[in-house]
Amino acid sequence: MAGKTLYDKLWESHLVQTRDDGTALIYIDRHLLHEVTSPQAFEGLRLAKRLPWRLNANLATPDHNVPTSQKERSAGNAGIVDPVSLIQVQTLDDNCEEFGITEFAIDDIRQGIVHVVGPEQGATLPGMTVVCGDSHTSTHGAFGALAHGIGTSEVEHVLATQCLIQRKMDNMLVSVDGELGAGVTAKDVVLYIIGVLGTAGGNGCAIEFGGSVIHSLSMESRMTICNMAIEAGARAGMVAVDEITIDYVKGRPFAPKGDDWDRAVSQWRHLVSDVDARFDKVVRISAADIVPQVTWGTSPEMVVGIDGCVPDPAAAADEGKAAAIRSALVYMGLSAGQKMTDITLDRVFIGSCTNSRIEDLRAAAQVVRGKRIAATIKEALVVPGSGLVKQQAEAEGLHHIFIAAGLQWREPGCSMCLAMNADKLGAGEHCASTSNRNFESRQGYGGRTHLVSPAMAAAAAISGHFVDIREVQNHA
Amino acid sequence: MRKFTQVDSHVCPLDRANVDTDLIIPKQFLKSIARTGFGPNLFDGLRYLDEGQPGMDVSSRPVNPDFVLNFPQYAGSEILLSRENFGCGSSREHAPWALEDYGFRVIIAPSFADIFYNNCFKNALLPVVLTAEQVDRLFDLAASGEPVQLTVSLENQTVSLGDGTQWSFEVNDFRKYCLINGLDDIGITLQDADAIRAFETKHQQQSPWLF
Ligand code: SF4
Hints:
heterodimer; B: alpha/beta; binds iron/sulfur cluster
């Protein structure tokens, strides 16, 4: 018999029951909640007179539409100017209080983007099943956990039953081997992978990211990669447990302690795919092929290397692809053959659950240190992923570097990743963004998003257009 | 949940691949804490020429005459036809809520994004996967100008055209059962509460730090 993949092991260890039709009841260890996708679920519980099955499996924090300006934030909920956002944030507070769910509210230092907060607190642990009403829950798979986004009906289902009805997905291995070139980060790796797989390439699959490159990465970088598994169509992305994982988890507030810790670690060491495990699909990528990436279009798969050009629809493989390229070019206001380094920018956003952790902020700060953003940049935001990330960055003096360079240092939240608060692009504006989605109007009505790594975003802020970070770093 | 058995309707053709959830319902409408009322803002960015905001009276907004949903011949359609990877992007259930609230009962496409596909079944919306050739054929028929009338039977798992052509589609038995009977799957799961409790006890013994 073939060995088991990491996903097989996680699935089997949480399987409550299999039904005749192949669906299964899967037990959920950790359920994260935020203000946008939970109100209707709590309302459903109330209407059906149901209570949460296990309170301490749940952890909540507002993130999607909290304001990020210091002025608004200094007054807690009362400072939220947008009345509709206020209702959602207040409703989360009220629901958590009514049902007894732990919440890091807006003025708690532990508040932040739910996918930054979980790992930071040790609320995400190896071997767990983690769900949240948010597609980027795949982030938590970096810990050797089975983590994926769910809809609001499923949020209600998990609250009420601690289980989810699931079908087993296929196993896909994406192996990245070799050595990354200078200036090439986890963000470039995952954008490159999406470029290879396409946005639907991982549909129906749980992707395990493996290979020597992935295993040499820090936990924060692994989270960046798993975060964007969903952009390749896979609900779940994951990385096997190793010493880097265990070191990261150790000592975090929700992590096991004492004897429990030792027992946990010995279990966690099995959270790897067996050497003879069988994957339904295997994709091998050579690290040497990856250069810093920039998206040019309106889907994360519309990506090229910084040394490349905007594609020509005439060269597309089929008419469907050509049509997609044409409509993206119109929306983005770009022309075929244009060099990526010629794209000028109006705004820069460094943040989101993809790239708002301390390493991301350090990388960006290093690039802007002692420089000034270009006069043509209207606004450059740095939005830390959580209150604790912000605190750490300030302890390292990173905020001074950003502010001196002309970037704005904000309060934690999702911010311009999806522009539900006041942080938005204007119509037609180009933005270098470290977030994960470049869909039409994602960052503001008519806004044009280019996805990049934190260092590339920082370098673009300084130059006013995209630049090859490898050249910047060589001259530094 | 509303029961789903059969839908007879003309088709609204949305000829576009990778229709994402931000297109289906832009994020500014996610601020609602209700489950209903999203229909008027379905495809807001495509349907109207201005930027929509929650609470705006849509009847006074400029409509985009080039967008299919605004073509008079597709008014009242309950079947939306689209291209591959429909519903990609976020997990927002507001997307199926908006489609359902607008009046769609069936979405036909060659493929769907996983989370969206799953969310449809919780909201009396049937996602039907047909082959790329079958979808092409429907788009071709729609392009000819005549309304394309279809019967979608969940019971028989078939899509029938007026000319006698019939295609079958796959659907998971459990989902079909829930949709046909309008069942809330929380109630069904709670029938297995003992099994969940037994699993939980064992799981806690093995990994006490999870509790
Ligand atoms: S940062 Fe962006 S992608 Fe991440 S949870 Fe917030 S809105 Fe979603």
